[in-house]
Write a structure and sequence with these properties.
This protein is α/β, with parallel strands linked by helices. The chain has a single domain, classed as Acetylglutamate kinase-like (Carbamate kinase). The chain has 10 helices and 14 strands. The strands form 4 sheets. Strands 5-8-2-1-11-13-14-12 form an 8-stranded mixed beta sheet, with helices on both faces. It has a two-stranded antiparallel ribbon with strand order 3-4. Strand 1, helix 2 and strand 2 form a beta-alpha-beta unit. The structure holds adenosine-5'-triphosphate and magnesium ion. The site of adenosine-5'-triphosphate (ATP) has 22 residues, from helix 3, helix 7 and helix 9.
Length: 283
């Protein structure tokens, strides 16, 4: 009996947060690095379903960096990164789209649906809802910068009670263009801005942003982020992630968090308890 009362108390503790986020849009960037074990993926799906059932409108944008790299190396195709973003040749683009739209997106959609959600997988090419242009073709090839997001494609899906699962691929503007590979962090923040998200959470494979002594930094301002980038403390894949956080909060998203995707239920801890997890980026 006592145990049952505890369960009820736990539910009641979450009540203020459930109220706060009712009908709010929460964008979750599900990093490739956090999609490790099948168990963790199951927990991820359960958390999304719980969020959805208590009235939150979740939108998922996934990455897939590690899987793309693995496939490229299996095919002996060379790949490199400049400032944390992949150089995308035409060949790399084909593989990136296969892995992102073909494999990871469908896997995630199936997983969510098998838990009873109504998830629907799309990439920016569907209805041309995300368009991009080359970031710097000579340097990064088909790695794109987003030029437009048609918010109504996503909001209509949510109105119909679907959970949108977005692969970070954008359409090019010219006819027959192969499309663009978009850094998933930046894709998540552009989508979050366009659809008026309340919160954005980046699930990755570290506790959050760490300093040089590997200690977690729980809150960072724009100036602090710039200083940590300048001295190299923030490097590689963390660069587009902090940039994406700044982009989101500048664009009206109330809160941006980088949280540990290796920790079970980290999203629920962030949403439904007063103890923040990971790093919060503030204005
Ligand atoms: N200051 C820092 N604190 C924490 N991690 C950092 C820092 N600087 C660089 N990193 C690196 O950033 C990585 C996270 O970015 P990464 O792009 O690899 O993952 P992801 O974005 O979650 O996955 P994907 O790119 O597949 O979507 C960490 O694993 C770590 O190696
Ligand atoms: Mg990344």
């Amino acid at each position: 009996m006592q145990k049952k009362i505890e369960t009820v108390k736990t539910l009641l503790d979450a009540l203020p947060f459930i109220k706060e986020f009712n009908k709010e849009i929460v964008v979750i960037k599900y990093g490739g690095s956090a999609q490790t074990s099948p168990q963790l993926k199951e927990k991820f799906a359960e958390d999304i379903l719980l969020m959805y059932l208590v009235g939150i409108r979740p939108v998922i944008v996934h990455g897939g960096g590690t899987k793309i790299t693995d496939m490229l190396s299996a095919l002996s195709i060379e790949t490199k990164f400049i400032d944390g973003q992949r150089v995308t040749t035409k060949e790399v683009m084909r593989i990136a789209e296969m892995i992102l739209s073909g494999e990871i997106n469908k896997d995630l959609v199936s997983l969510l649906n098998s838990h009873g959600a109504k998830a629907i997988g799309i990439s920016g090419k569907d209805a041309h809802f995300i368009t991009a242009k080359a970031k710097d073709f000579a340097k990064w090839g088909l790695t794109g910068n987003i030029t437009n997001v048609k918010a109504n494609v996503v909001t209509r899906l949510m109105d119909e009670k679907f959970i949108p699962v977005i692969a970070p691929i954008a359409a090019g503007e010219e006819l027959g263009h192969p499309g663009f590979n978009i850094n998933a962090d930046l894709c998540a923040s552009y989508v979050a801005k366009a659809i008026g998200a309340n919160k954005i959470m980046f699930l990755t494979d570290t506790a959050g942003v760490l300093n040089n002594d590997k200690e977690l930094l729980d809150t960072l301002t724009k100036n602090e982020v710039e200083a940590l980038k300048a001295d190299g403390t923030i490097h590689g894949g963390m660069v587009p992630k902090v940039d994406a956080c700044l982009e989101a909060i500048d664009g009206g998203v109330h809160k941006a968090h980088i949280i540990d995707g290796r920790l079970e239920h980290s999203m629920l801890l962030e949403l439904f308890t007063s103890a923040g997890v990971g790093t919060q980026i503030v204005k």
